Amino acid sequence: MKKTLLKFILSIFCMFTVLEINADEGFDFEMAFFKINKEVKSLNNEILSLKEENELLKEAQRLNSEKIAKLFEIIELNSIENKKEEAILKTDIEKNAFKLYSDGKSQFVLGDYKKAIELFISYLENFPDLENVADSKLWLGRAYSRSEAYIDSKKSYLDFQSSHTNHPKYADSLYELSQVLIEFKEINEAKLLLSKMIEEYPEHTLIKKAIQLLEDL
Hints:
CATH architecture of the largest domain: Alpha Horseshoe
Shape: rod-shaped
Strand content: under 5%
Order of helices and strands: HHHHHHHH
Largest sheet: none
């Protein structure tokens, strides 16, 4: 638009220069002004056209801004929905895992140790990173012991003890594993476990049983 205005000013300047030069030669002023008026109209039309183009560009820019804002909104909404889906999925997984673990304990209490073993193994295979892994290993050791599958029971107890020394039931596992070792006639190993339990957990609820079992050995 600036170029158009400059063009207009230069045209007017040229016209008046010509008028001044030809004033003494009987120049046709009417024709000159007609041409000037025609040039002005042409320039006005060009200015209007440029204004319209400018308005169209502004409108296009506005529409693009709206589209960009809408796009970001969609991206944000998708992100929120994905997070919600992940949270729901995580919750569903945790619910399924806890049900599996609870069912395993229930079957143990009911005396169906075979079924309990299947459920605890399934939990450990499918949910190795969830919170009841340690407890599942401990209950698996107990279920194997009740089933007189002492080799598997020993493995489960040792697996539990190797990774969960700070578990609230760690002391229980020492006492329970010592009983399994007695079945294998591994008396010295059983004594070591009982001694460790008595020394490190003197206030434990099983301490009297541990002392009596150690004396009997």
